[in-house]
Amino acid sequence: MHEELLSELVRVLRPARRILAFTGAGISTRSNIPDYRGPTGVYRHRSPVYYQQFVASDSARREYWSHKYDGYAGFRDAEPNSAHRALVELEKRGQLAMVVTQNVDGLHQASGLSRERLIELHGSNREVECDSCGVREDPERCMTHFSKTGEPPCCLECGGFMKPAVVMFGQALSSELLQRAHAASPQADLILALGSSLVVTPAADIPLSGVNHGAPYVIINQGQTPHDGLATLRIDGDVADYLPAAVARLCTPDW
């Protein structure tokens, strides 16, 4: 870590009382959740299945479930890391207004973050849902079915296609969740973009609502982002290194 950058992060964090944190895959890599667009990201070697393909093609459904099954144990067993816990500490200190996440790993909720301060824009892998009737359940039945048969699971209620309760490529984000996030952003007195490449819109536009209302903008990410020129403080590094260290200093009287 660069001491100068860490000290600057502490300086920016200290007076904030309405922080909006926008998080991406980079906040969860220390929890052994792979990112998507980094040097070893998932999309370097596996193309995503689009929703329209999933609905129309049995082979696409098999490919999608194969991908989800391959990653299931990692998601199931993953635990929040120090960066997730640092955001919980900011909440306890009365500084955190909202976390808006692109992640589907459920680790923010598992960390103890208050549910009312969390917006999961892309859903969560910790449930599966029927594409027809919307019924939800724990993933275990569907994963066991796929592992034994190689066939995509179906809904026990209506026979529809089951899928993890996430927004697939080609699906629109929830307008209600987007509205909540865009309403929270201009109210923030500090925007933190943590571990996000900030390239997937409309989600990546959410921090800009706050920035356009004058909030300082801190970006911590490994690799460039399209927002770098707007940042008050730009740190090219692992958020799990910088954020927990900065929050620990906030909690130390000498700092």
Layout of helices and strands:
Layout lengths: L2 H11 L5 E5 L27 H6 L1 H20 L4 H11 L3 E6 L5 H4 L7 E3 L2 E8 L5 E2 L2 H10 L12 E5 L8 H10 L5 E5 L11 H6 L5 E4 L12 E3 L3 H12 L5
Parallel strand pairs: 1-2, 1-7, 2-3, 7-8, 8-9
Antiparallel strand pairs: 4-5, 4-6
Helix pairs in contact: 1-9, 4-9
Provide a descriptive summary of the structure in words.
By secondary structure, the chain is α/β, with parallel strands linked by helices. 35% of the residues lie in helices and 16% in strands. The protein contains nine helices and nine strands. The strands form two sheets. It has a six-stranded parallel β-sheet, with helices on both faces. Strands 5-4-6 form a three-stranded antiparallel β-sheet, covered by helices on one side. The chain is elongated and about 60 Å long.
